[in-house]
Amino acid sequence: MLAATPAFLWVYAGVGIPWALALLPRRDWRNRALVVCLAFVAGPMLLTAWMFVLGSADHPLLRFDLIFGGTLVMALMGVLLAWRKRQPEASGVPPPPPLATDEKLLIALIVVATALRWLVVAYWPFTAYDALWVYGYQGRLYTLLGMIPQHIDYYPQFLQLQYTYAQLALGGIDDHAARAVLPFLNVGSILAAYVLGARLFTRRVGIIAAAMWALYPHMGEWSRFGDLEIPQAFLFTTAAAFFLLAWTGTTFRRRYALIAGLVLGVALWTKPTAGALIWGVLLLVVVEMARVRFDWRAWWPRFEVACLTGLACIPLGGLWYVRNLLLGHPPLVFPTGFWLTQASRSGAEFGWLLLALLLLLALVYFDPVGTRPDSRRTLAGLLLVLAALMPTLINFHIMPADILSHRMGIIEWVLLALGAALLWMSLRPLAASPASGTVQIITGKVGWALLLALPYFVTWFYSYSYHYRLS
Prior knowledge:
Shape: globular
Helix content: over 70%
């Protein structure tokens, strides 16, 4: 693994950083976390796209010399594009305030957790079923054949081709070499959570968001397997962060929208469920059009953001699916119908949202100087929500024998809808008061972000909630 790590450092930093600088506005160059996060997308994006071109030929071209030569050319192109933007930016930007003690503690915990996971990833070979027999297997197959066989028609190749790259760099089949990419993807997902929180809100929000994700036990467990869940979370979150920057901001909207589309294309190049972000974008467009009463002059800027994001995701995002069609394969491969019948659809899937609601209510009602909404309506709404979620949440088991008995039924859904409506009516005046401009801005960003995530949540809840990793 140590021997293969420099090969990935070259891709993720040597190729990725110049292209991240070329893509980002000059103003963002001083934001190192943002630059590295985008570099961790751009580097492997260019690597795997080039490897796909080589691997699609009728004879073996997946050789390390050809792959490295292509990345060298791409790195030089990125350097030239970034060099054109080298003019120093005007000074006057105040330095960030020093980190608080708890922020330093969270960062230290993230570093320790990441180091421990690196050791675990380095020590074991592939052991999980999918990584062993699908993704890891494909990486070994391409290494041996020097090409992508035409009969391969499963998920896209973002992760598999990186496994191939590492083994070609070392000259033979080696799971430990292939797994050297996993820490980069894990760190990228943590940076994505930080960028989402820090750029939409504050640095402190970003640190807390990154810590919540990095220290989430299920993230720690699945960071070691080599499956698609961590890279998909990394890419989905990064695409959402840049899209929301374009959607809620006023500067560089087109550039951020194009970056969001490129990252979304990489997410679709990883797993087809990333397409749920497209439904989220369409939902935001519909809500925005209704909000401004279909005045085209008001909704056009955000409609343009959505269009640019959609257009930018097509080249890489649709590449594998078009290739499958041309070879006579189904464009998409989904799990068999049996797995869809195993979806839990229980109150347990609302756990994080319920926790967020309780924290929000605690913040509102224990704030000594804040305005408290109608407590009776709030209590009634909270009790209805708890009545809807708690029965199936308490009885929830992983893959129970009779899973249908633990699903939310029509009564629970009615109670949940009534409770959510009461809570909305109770809390909405807090954000709508004229004296709370900052609260309005924050609430607006949170609302847009939740709407963007809603289609993925619905898709997962209804079809894929048979395992927590797919969330």
